[in-house]
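Hello, quick one for you while I still have it in my head. No rush at all, and the record is pasted right below.
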Amino acid sequence: PSIPFPLLDMRAAGDEWFRNRVHGYTLQIADEPEQALWEGALECLGYPANKKGFWQLAARLNWSQASEAVKSLGMIDLEALFQWAAGFGQKPDGAPVIGGKAPSWRSRYGRPANSPKSRVRAAATWAVRWSELGSLSQAFIQAVRRAKSPGDLAAVFVVPASQKRSTPIGRSRAGDIVVNHLLPAVYALALARRDPKLATHVKWLFDTHSPLSSNGITREASRLLQARGVNGKPRSAREQQGLIHIYRMAVASQQPVRQLPLL
């Protein structure tokens, strides 16, 4: 299908992608904001094959239970709780009662840092880090307010290697989570709280964030635009998300959802 000419502008398309993403989070945080943020964060731990598995983990061991467990369990037992909730290992002593079935994983292996077990360890580390600030929304908003550059936000999600284990979340993957989850989610929170100053800062961080790692979609999308005589090399995450948005509209015929105005 033909693409509207304005959307051949990667920045304009990036803004539309961002509006659509914010709209989704606006709906999700309306009832249970903390749980919505928790589910969104854990989904980012799984590559496409395992996004559902991490969403199931977030639902089985919800934010309320995870943050309470942080108060009563040491790090070793807390990680064991997360691994057991994910379907790995035995239930640790003193673990809280949780319901539901363990997630179903489409792939349990791959590179060690990308395996579900490694990423589950990252989720336990996140729970400790964010619980110390009282709530997920407070942790995310505080990080955004303090950020003087987009690169400062990677620290929210980076989980370094420990005890000879590989790094489950490095800076590159953390950047993906910042762009796809943190910034649109905090913008939705800013809308809900009627905080235009926070919203403006979020949008600036999105607009100036460096491009994320390239992949097959971005390379194919660049060729698509260049074939139409348009520069397809993104200079920012905003342009890169716009590039992907253009590609999906052209190839998958996806229509944007109702837009919300940016503050």
In short: DSSP finds eleven helices and no strands in the chain. Confidence is low (pLDDT under 50) at residues 254-260. The radius of gyration is 19 Å.
